[in-house]
UniProtKB/TrEMBL annotation:
GO terms for molecular function: nucleotide binding. SUPFAM superfamilies: Glyceraldehyde-3-phosphate dehydrogenase-like, C-terminal domain, NAD(P)-binding Rossmann-fold domains. It comes from Paramicrobacterium agarici. Residues 6-119 form the Gfo/Idh/MocA-like oxidoreductase N-terminal domain. The keyword NADP does not apply. This is Putative dehydrogenase. Residues 128-237 form the GFO/IDH/MocA-like oxidoreductase domain. Gene3D superfamilies: Dihydrodipicolinate Reductase, domain 2, NAD(P)-binding Rossmann-like Domain. Keywords: NAD.
Length: 329
């Protein structure tokens, strides 16, 4: 029998509780230790002792760790885990600053360890199906990617703004589904809730491929929305990552007879298709990818280098909002 990977979890809060559940469910992983200085507010420890810190996790002789603590603590925990030879998955964003992310990325690379970042949207079934269909050329050239990520303020987020917490999702998924990096960004922010950090950001930019991008992100809307629209030469895909649905709006091929409409020399409305495909829980797929990477197998895990790149683009967007200048990340 193949031995299971011994896993430790740092952070048993709102996100940590989901990690604990999935780690117990994924084949080949044994959750053997949980640490959180705040205790176990959601009762996820089961029969495990709740350890006080990352040193306690390391002492439990773990092979891999999941770090689900506030962003400002990511670097300290990750560097200690790297020094102890532990493969580590860190929740996004990778770190509070680009410099911290660079130190983390270097530490895991130098140690020959797997370092991963929890950009979970890549594992959403709608976006995985979208990535597959774009790769197959079903849209042709991509002209534009527009995302909307809006909803109420989550009281648990205290140490970063909406840019690093949420816009990082959209920046990472856009670069991933298009397989094209960001060339230039411009952003505007708003501070409406009396907090130190921005609670609204609007980012526009261009990818290296030439595609135009826009991201509308806020914590100020009572309406929760998680939408990605990719428009190209053959139509438009709409991915709803809240439901896992993917819909394709094809460009029409039927001649229009209505004179006032047919005078417009653009595309016309064609068939609309909502695809059926398996919808597995993104967090489970993400943990399976991390497990496979630790085992040295082919994996779609989000590397620390990729997580660092997403943070670099977010930082450029925030700096653009401060200066009023478009920037190259």
């Amino acid at each position: 029998m193949v031995e299971k990977l011994r896993a430790g979890l740092l952070g048993a809060g709102m996100m940590g509780r989901h990690h604990a559940r999935v780690l117990r469910e994924v084949e080949g992983i044994d959750l053997v230790a949980i640490a959180d200085p705040a205790g176990d507010p959601h009762g996820v420890a089961g029969g495990l002792e709740v350890l006080p810190d990352v040193e306690g996790l390391i002492a439990a002789s773990i092979d891999m760790a999941v770090v689900a603590v506030p962003t400002r603590f990511h670097e300290d925990a990750a560097l200690k885990l790297a020094a102890a030879g532990v493969h580590t998955f860190v929740e996004k964003p990778i770190a509070e600053t680009v410099e911290a992310g660079q130190r983390m990325t270097k530490a895991f690379a130098d140690a020959g360890l797997v370092g991963a970042v929890g950009h979970i949207e890549r594992f959403n079934p709608a976006l995985q199906e979208l990535r597959r269909r774009l790769s197959a050329g079903e849209l042709g050239n991509v002209y534009q990617v527009a995302t909307r990520r809006q909803g109420p303020f989550p009281a648990r987020i205290a140490d970063v703004g909406v840019g690093k917490d949420l816009a990082s999702h959209d920046i990472d998924l856009t670069a991933w589904v298009t397989q094209s990096d960001y060339d230039r960004v411009f952003a505007q922010t708003a501070f409406k809730s009396g907090r130190e950090y921005e609670d609204m950001i609007a980012v526009t930019g261009r990818l290296a491929s030439g595609a135009v991008v826009s991201h509308l992100v806020n914590w100020l809307s009572p309406m929760k929305e998680r939408i990605t629209v990719v428009t190209g030469e053959k139509g438009a895909f709409v991915a709803d990552t809240a439901t896992g649905d993917l819909t394709f709006y094809a460009n029409g091929t039927i001649p229009l007879e209505w004179e006032s409409v047919s005078a417009f020399r653009g595309v016309s409305e064609g068939d609309v298709t909502r695809f059926a495909f398996p919808k597995r829980e993104p967090l489970r797929v993400e943990h399976e990818a991390f497990r496979d990477a630790v085992l040295g197998q082919a994996s779609d895990v989000v590397t620390m280098q990729q997580g660092l790149r997403a943070l670099e683009v977010v930082e450029a967007a925030l700096e653009s909002a401060r200066t009023g200048e478009a920037l190259a990340p």
